[in-house]
Amino acid sequence: MSGSAGAPGASRRTFVLTSALATGSLLAGGAGTARAQARARAGSAGDVTVRLPAPTGPHRVGTVTLYLVDRSRPDPWDDAIPVRELVVTVHYPARSVRGCPVVPQMTPGAAALFQQIDVHIHGLPRSGVDWSATLTHAHGGAPAQPVRRPVLLHSPGGGDPRTLGTALAEELASHGYVVVSLDHPGDASEVEFPNTTAYRDRPYRTTVFRDDPRKEPRVARTMIETRIADLRFVLDRLAGLAAGRNPDALGRPLPEHLGRALDLRRVGCYGHSAGGTAVAEALYEDRRFAAAVNLEGYLSHPPEGPGQEGELYPVARYGVDRPLFLLGTDGFIGQEAARKELEASWSAMPAHPRGRIRRRRIDGATHWVFTDYAALAPQLETAGLMTADARHALVGSLPPAVSVPVVRRHVRSFFDRHLRR
């Protein structure tokens, strides 16, 4: 799902995901959510635990989660929140991992919300999986190597949490990158915060998307504009971190040498779907980004009406003078009209005299092959919890032994070429 809720202005509406959210007590809070979190923590006897593919690089991976607050802008999806709150995960090459255990892909609270929201979106099993049990290969709080590394910002697909990009982030970090994965609250299916506030009385927010936001042009514009602003704000905070300041809004301790690991002269960004749109346009708008990878995101606004063409984003209208990689699949989701819309926006990219546009396609794959589902969905199929048709619709027919390395190779080789100079 990609989507969002509310359009700008005082008459902003809030879209609420139906089914799971409406029938559960998720938004109402209280005992229903507490019980769901307890179930996620405990799991059930016989529940399947899915596993993430291991990174292949020479470096052990450290990780830390940061809570960032932009006080210069209000939240675009909730009028009651006067600031923009973000949660990001940083993966980096670790100096040592002794005494630093690996962390789970999702916290128990996020896993409970995932079980109630995401499984309904992507045709995942509604029971039989302990989503809180999946471990990453990253060690929480491990000291960073005090070596300047290229920095990559990651924006997930519309409606997706940052945790669904864990395997690729770990892979890049194991090969010497610092990777910062963003949640976009109100957009992401679930975001768990480390605190409550006077304007947010729960330690989480859930998606405001009801449907594909491209069906609501004003919503789609707000979603992408917000993501671009989020990316630029996070880069601002990374500059403070590199200068020795703690960007965490609660002042929580940082891993040793984390700021020294950032080389902000070499910054790239990559994103899936709506995240791909956002990073491509961020590359155009902000020269601090030196290269970007768009993983099957449109480069045009949605059409305002039937039979109309969507307005191109400036990056597609004017081109860009820095490297941009457009990576897609042969099984792009949606109707034929959606596929034509994506193709039209990508094909519109003009040849900039100083630009380097690269385009490739992965055959035998579909839209979410760029996420952790590429590895997880086949495991669910093998366990009898997901049909072959549902797995193919989600990630395609390629086995993970092929699809995971292909995506990793494409993304890493691109950034190696343009950020390792």
Compact overview of the structure:
The chain has helices at residues 20-23, 31-42, 108-122, 166-174, 217-242, 274-285, 314-318, 336-347, 373-382, 388-395, 400-419; strands at 61-70, 84-93, 102-104, 135-140, 149-155, 178-183, 190-192, 204-206, 262-272, 291-295, 324-331, 357-366. The protein has 421 residues and is α/β, with parallel strands linked by helices.
Q: Please tally the β strands and state the result.
A: 12
- Contiguous low-pLDDT stretches (5 residues minimum) are 1-42
Q: What does the largest sheet look like?
A: 10 strands, mixed
What's the end-to-end separation, in Å? 37 Å
The dominant shape is globular
| Residue-averaged pLDDT | 89
Please work out how many helical segments DSSP would assign: 11
Q: Can you list the strand order of the major beta sheet?
A: 3-4-1-2-6-5-9-10-11-12
Q: What's the helical proportion of residues?
A: 25-40%
Secondary-structure element sequence? Answer: HHEEEHEEHEEEHEHEHEHEHHH
